[in-house]
Specification:
The protein is α+β, with helices and mostly antiparallel strands. About 25% of the residues lie in helices and about 40% in strands. The strands form nine sheets. Strands 11, 12, 15, 16 and 17 form a five-stranded antiparallel sheet that branches. Strands 22, 24, 25, 26 and 27 form a five-stranded antiparallel sheet that branches. The longest helix has 29 residues, at about 445-475.
């Protein structure tokens, strides 16, 4: 009886162990390089629902989720396994955590334990010529080209990121950016490329390569010493020729994902020299012109003038202040208005900045504006340079005199009566000029009648011009006809100018023919085939030989893209086009 009890106990323990639910996370490796891939498996021994994966912070999901199920019976014992798999690419170096995933099994929520993953620098892989990963790594490179690695403080440098691809592999899908360069301690500005991305041919390490420019940036270092530019990192899908072949004997392409990085770049920034540094140096580095100007030099008191301080050239225009303005207290000066027009290209900032001051003199007199100096550091000569403006003299012609006002103010502050002098009333007129009332007045003079008749002469002309203009504006079809006709003549003129240049000539000639028909038929002929255009011309009762000539011109334009022709034939086609357009114009109904 005791043995039976022990046997039943072992059976129950086995059933309990078999019924225990397992939900775990497994990693292909816990330490890997930034250029490697990581596989994460979430494995369970019972079927579940509502699987929720973690966020995978610090990684890009490059594959998955892939689901696999294993269900087998061995010696009457059931074995079940269900796995969700993800393939991850690290974004940067460091220690990251794969957080908990959850699954619902038999109305119970199960969670995995967090998993620590260490990402190191890129690791070298065995050189296996038959490995698609190795072939891809040897034929795709990301390069960061820096114009200067040891600039001065605030000197412009450029960094250009280029993706090199050899002719042995190809990239047919877009890549993904994993890590963006960080320009810490730099003033930075990206330069946008206009139009479509260009592909260039070159050689790299003695082999023919193609490359594209991913981005350009202009940098101005703001600190001295050793500065680091963090790398640009991409996840690139690369098509590599595999070892297997199809039924036609061609090698099949294998697609692999590679993480490539431009690597860190170290910039050693030199401080600006202290020897010879001017006292008024404000941090301008580059090559500049400097000027001070006023819009007038003669004016009256309480009348405003504008003084402009302007710096123009190539350098860190947005990173320094213009010299300040110091004037006598008798000149009222307002806060300056800043104006700038600065373009940023591969050489850096280029343009001008200016401060415009509004100045109002209060008294009569001459006011010299002393020379203003502007200093900058010229990186070409590695020396400081100073530009000094010319002295400007502003003359105030009419207005109160400062000395007189001072004396009057002093006398007003006393209780004594003011002494009377002849100069105190010099601004009051003491004589006048009388005009006889018998002189001829303006009324009923010849000038009066001429001015009176002007409206009666010009009003009918204005009405006639307005009516004509309204008719032309309301004539929508006519306006379209005139515009399209002018455009057709323009293209015929371009075609004439391009005689001798086959491709340009026939391109202009074809547009002229289409725009002429657009004017005549009020249709967009580029939406029709050549046969449809011929049908439209026939329906308009155009003679067959004219239609045939028009068709021949369209064929000539089409064949010219593929076959060369002589200048004589081009001249003949131009003369033929002039005649055909003239004859069609006469025969349209």
């Amino acid at each position: 009886m005791r043995l039976v009890s022990i046997f039943i106990l072992f059976i129950l323990m086995g059933i309990g162990v078999q019924a225990q639910v397992s939900f775990v996370v497994k990693a292909s490796k816990k330490t890997l390089g930034i250029n490697e891939r990581l596989r994460i498996d979430f494995e369970m021994n019972e079927d579940g629902d509502n699987f929720v994966p973690p966020s995978f912070k610090g990684f890009n999901v490059v594959g998955g989720p892939n689901q696999s199920i294993s269900n087998s019976w061995i010696n009457g014992k059931r074995s079940y396994s269900k796995t969700y798999s993800y393939f991850l690419a690290p974004k940067s170096q460091g220690t990251f955590s794969i957080n908990q995933a959850t699954i619902e099994i038999d109305d119970q929520i199960y969670k995995t334990t967090p998993l620590k993953i260490i990402i190191t620098e890129a690791v070298s892989k065995p050189k296996d010529g038959n490995s698609a990963d190795y072939v891809a790594s040897e034929n795709v490179h990301l390069i960061a080209e820096v114009s200067k690695s040891n600039p001065f403080l605030n000197e412009a440098i450029t960094i250009v990121y280029k993706l090199y691809v050899s002719n042995d592999v190809s990239i047919t899908r877009s890549w993904q950016e994993l890590d963006t360069p960080k320009f810490q301690d730099f003033w930075s500005q990206y330069i946008e490329e206009k139009g479509e991305q260009q592909i260039y041919e070159t050689t790299y390490e003695g082999k023919p390569y193609r490359y594209v420019i991913l981005r350009k940036a202009v940098l101005y270092p703001q600190k001295t010493g050793e500065l680091t530019i963090e790398p640009l990192t991409l996840d690139v899908p690369i098509d590599v020729q595999g070892n297997t072949r199809d039924i036609f004997g061609r090698r099949r392409m294998t697609r692999v994902n590679r993480t490539i990085s431009a690597g860190k770049r170290i910039i050693n920034v030199k401080p600006l020299p202290t020897e010879g540094r001017p006292d008024d140096f404000s941090g301008a580095v580059g090559n500049f012109n400097f000027s001070v100007s006023v819009n007038k030099t003669m004016l009256d008191a309480n009348e405003a003038l504008e003084l402009k301080i302007r710096t123009k050239g190539i350098g860190n225009l947005k990173l320094f202040n213009l010299p300040s303005l110091t004037l006598p207290s008798s000149l009222e000066v307002y806060e300056p208005v800043r104006d700038n027009k600065v373009a940023i290209n591969i050489k850096g900032m280029n343009g001008f900045i200016s401060d415009t001051y509004t100045i109002i003199p209060q008294y009569k007199g001459s006011y010299p504006i002393r020379p203003i100096s502007f200093s900058y550091f010229d990186v070409t000569s590695s020396k400081y340079k100073t530009i000094i403006s010319d002295e400007i003299v502003v003359k105030v012609q009419n207005g109160p005199v400062p000395n007189q006002l001072t004396e009057v103010n002093k006398s007003l502050s006393t209780e004594n009566d003011l002494p009377l002098t002849n100069n105190q009333f010099k601004y009051i007129k003491t004589s006048t000029k009388f005009i006889s009332i018998n002189d001829l007045v303006f009324f009923k003079t010849f000038k009066f009648w001429c001015l009176l008749s002007i409206p009666f002469v010009f009003i009918p002309i204005i009405i006639l011009i307005g009516n004509t203009r309204r008719k032309r504006l309301n004539d929508i079809e006519g306006r379209r006809y005139r515009i399209a006709t002018r455009l057709a003549k323009k293209y015929l003129s371009e075609a004439k100018n391009n005689i001798g240049k086959q491709e340009l000539f026939y391109d202009s000639l074809e547009r002229a023919l289409h725009n002429y028909l657009k004017a005549k038929l009020a249709i967009v002929t580029s939406e029709f085939s050549k046969e449809k255009i011929i049908e439209l011309l026939t329906d308009r009762k155009v003679e067959k030989n004219v239609v045939s000539d028009f068709e021949g011109l369209l064929k000539s334009c089409e064949f010219a893209r593929y076959t060369p022709t002589s200048n004589v034939a081009i001249q003949q086609d131009y003369n033929k086009a002039v005649k055909v357009i003239s004859r069609i114009d006469k025969q349209f109904q």
